[in-house]
Amino acid sequence: MSYLLSQLINGITLGGLYALVALGYTLVYGILLMINFAHSELFMAGGYVGLGVLKVLSDGAVATGPLAFMKPAQTFFNSGMLGFVALMAATFLISAVIVGLLGVLIERFAYRPLRHAPRLAPLISAIGVSIFLQNAVLLWVSSKQLPYSRADGTAFVTSHTLLKFGGVEITTMQVFIVVTSLLLLLFLDTFVARTRIGRAMRATSQDREAAGLMGVDINSVIALAFFIGPALGAVAGVFNGMYYGSVKYNMGFIPGIKSFTAAVVGGIGNLRGAMLGGFLLGIVESLAGGFLETGYKDVIAFIVLVLVLIFRPGGLLGEAVAEKV
Amino acid sequence: MADTKAAAVMPTPTRKKLPPKTIVAYSILAAVLVLVPVLVQSATGWEFIVRIFVIVGIWVLLALGLNIVVGYAGLLDLGYIAFYAMGGYAGVIIGQAVSHWTGGATYFLMLIPAALAGALTGVALGFPVLRLRGDYLAIVTLGFGEIVRICLNNNLFGLSNGASGLPYGNQVMALPFGAQWLQDNIRFQTPLGFFQFGPNMYWYVIVVMLVLGAIFVIRRLDDSRLGRAWVAMRENEVAAEACGINIRTQKLWAFSLGALSGGIAGVTFAYVQQFISPESFTFMESVFVVCIIVIGGMGSIKGVIAGALLIKGVPDLIQGLAVAGVLKMPAEMQSLMSNYRFLVFGLLMVVMMAVRPQGIIPSSRRARELLPEDGRILAEEDMQEWDVENRANTEPDDV
Predict the structure, then answer these.
(1) Which of A288, B211, B243, B358 is spaced 20 to 30 Å from B181 by Cα?
(2) B74: buried, middle or exposed (CB in 10 Å: 19+, 13-18, 0-12)?
(3) Element (H or E) spanning B317, and its range?
């Protein structure tokens, strides 16, 4: 029983990560009806950028040479609770903004020229971007697994046990991940539902041309979607690095596919659906993973994907949309 | 095949005589196909290049197979390598089990189970994804490819020997029929050296025959009722269905025929390499084949071959020459080349989609689908096709 429960808790944590990445897929799909295949690579980029930011802000070994001026800032970030909170806030914010801008850049150069092309064209372009980003990191950063810690081996974030009952442990890290992802969803949901820009986004996703005629600046709405999605993906990437303790150039592929599955399970194009799908998939995978050989763990998500697409292609919260002729 | 029935009903089209220019071109091509490997094989220290030709030939076969699915039927399959794997594994597993009785004929006999394994997997994948379109299909096929690889890697049913691959350590795969005899008996002097009909040469002949066979079949398919149904389906599924095309059957045909070709390529690859392991069937390999088709020209046989030669052939050849020391290249340069390969391909795919989505040598129909306004800027030969099609009025004006 306690084993099952701890698997459940792992699953919820994993679900939080999937949900964050799935939001990016769903946001872009909702507006452009395309799968941003490069999204998994943006998740990976988030992990790397986060590592870089953390090193600059709090790793003494980095603060030499041209970066020596970071010394006093590092002392602040490494001291006390306030410093830690500031460090986390800065890391997530900077990674989210950098990766978000990368997303906007990709949209501008790889997808926008293809907006009126047949649907296969942007997808192939996206695969190209994905291969490019993966190999760029492989060549220009590192082909090896990088530890998510300072040069002296201490982790940036030490996870404590928050709760312990029976054999089950809940760590601060797990709570941190789940709470942050829920807060971000809440924020995004309110943003899309309540603000003027959110309304423009909804209008664009319903009918791009009509929205354009009503005065919505389509290009900036799409660019915004390509900023928010990757920014959320970057947050997930940083979490992923902290939670698993390392990053690698190909780390995005499998979580990317799984998050896409999560978005489909929830009903692609539906924000709450993506969140629900993420948590469901995380839980299903963790629970099923407990009973299967570890080698087959990754197969579960694919099987879920195929089953959902066959039996409920609209997803759990999605509505069946008739094909426009 | 389906088109035999169709051909019986339809009047046989009268074949025009080939213009002399084409005959000359084909003769030159044939001469190159024969002379180059013979000369290369006879030059001491250059024999390995024939092997590169063989591998590139196998990739041409793979790309031609995927071209049926992606180029003709318009179904983006990102897990195509799974069929290649299924063909290879089926060929090796069954082949090793029966090799005691079949001896040198094993490879040729194994073409049948490999093709069947490919085609059946194609149908097995085809059924659940029949209703999916475009990008959903791409992701599901990707997942399927990964499932196959993971199962092979984990030694499902104890058949695949996991990551260590097949055949098992102490087994060898029989050389096909006649290879030894040819090696012992066909030898002569060429301007570059002494020619001996080695195993690489043997495989070269087989692969060239397979590719020619595939081209023949695909050209016939393209002209058949099935081929036209695929194109109609690719252009507009709803309209095609309204015209009485059974989408399900056509999709299954596309999947199974494409997969069949993949299976044959797979078993050939396994017997050429004398070894097979899940490492050869990663997602990247699938992407590689898609890349060949996209850059070469979707739906165009010449384009796909050009793509395979350019993307697989040229880098492999340069690398092979560098490794053998024929081409003087520092070690850093070599590793740089193999590393930057994928980076460049990724970029090339993006640029290609924006600048020339129809590929290097486009198919006339596809070019018009992708670039309707300047679809007329085409090769002369394609222009003729274009005229014929327009007179026949088989194409919808607006897609």
Answers:
(1) B211
(2) buried
(3) helix B314-324
Higher pLDDT among residues B328 and A260, named by residue: A260
Half-sphere exposure of residue B128: CA atoms within 13 angstroms, side-chain side: 20
Interface contact A132-B350, CB threshold 8 A: yes
Give, as one character, the DSSP assignment of residue B46.
-
Q: Does A105 touch chain B (CB under 8 A)?
A: no
Cα–Cα distance for residue pair A52/A66, rounded to 1 Å: 15
Residue B18 DSSP symbol: P
Beta bridge partners of B193: B190
pLDDT of residue A49: 94
Cβ of A119 and B347 within 8 Å?
no
CB atoms within 10 A of CB B302: 17
- Class at the top of the CATH hierarchy for domain A2-145+160-311: mainly alpha
Q: What is the pLDDT of residues B65-74, one digit of tens each?
A: 999 988 888 8
Q: List CB contacts (< 8 A) between A124 and chain B.
A: 76, 290, 294, 349, 353
Hey, of A105, A106, A125, A323, which one would you mutate to test binding to chain B, going by the most B CBs within 10 A of its CB? Answer: A125
Cα separations in angstroms, A198 against A105, A202, B151? 21, 6, 44
Entry pTM: 0.81
Nearest residue to A41 (alpha-carbon basis) of A271, A275, A259, A221 = A259
Tell me the ipTM for this assembly.
0.82
Task: State residue A267's pLDDT score.
Answer: 83
d(CA A304, CA A258): 10
Cβ–Cβ gap B129/A139 under 8 Å: no
Whether omega before A113 lies within 30 degrees of 0, making that bond cis, reads no
End-to-end CA distance of chain B: 30
Give the pLDDT confidence score for residue B376 in this predicted structure.
45
Contact between B214 and B63 under an 8 Å Cβ cutoff? The reply is: no
| C-beta of residue B386 within 8 angstroms of C-beta of residue B364 | yes
CATH 1.10.12 matches B2-280: no
Is A309 within 8 Å of B135 when comparing Cβ atoms?
no
Q: Residue B29 pLDDT > 70, yes or no?
A: yes
pLDDT at A279: 92
B143 closest CB neighbour out of A118, A296, A302 = A302
Model pLDDT for residues B190-224, shown as the tens digit of each residue: 777 777 777 788 888 889 999 999 999 988 888 88
Of B134, B154, B294, the CB nearest to A296: B154
Q: Name the residue with higher pLDDT: B381 or B134.
A: B134
- Give the residue from chain B lying closest to A261, CA to CA: B139
Mean pLDDT of all residues in A100-107: 94
User: Residue B50 — pLDDT band, cuts 50, 70, 90?
Assistant: confident
Q: Does A296 touch chain B (CB under 8 A)?
A: yes
A120 in B contact zone (CB under 8 Å)? yes
Contacts of B386 (CB under 8 A, 6+ apart): B364, B368, B375, B376, B378
Query: Which amino acid is present at B120?
Result: L
**Where exactly are the structural domains of chain B?**
2-280
The model's pLDDT over A149-158, given as tens digits with 9 standing for 90+, comes to: 888 877 777 7
Distance CA A216, CA B196 (A): 72
Contacts of A240 (CB under 8 A, 6+ apart): A17, A43, A47, A247, A251, A255
Rounded to whole angstroms, how far apart are CA atoms A54 and A91? 6
Q: Do B76 and A310 touch (CB under 8 A)?
A: no
A124, A133, A136: residue with CB nearest B294: A124
Cα B89 to Cα A97, B117, B148, B160, B259, distances in angstroms: 47, 9, 11, 7, 14
* Residue in A closest to B235 by C-alpha: A118
Contact B134 A119 (CB under 8 A): yes
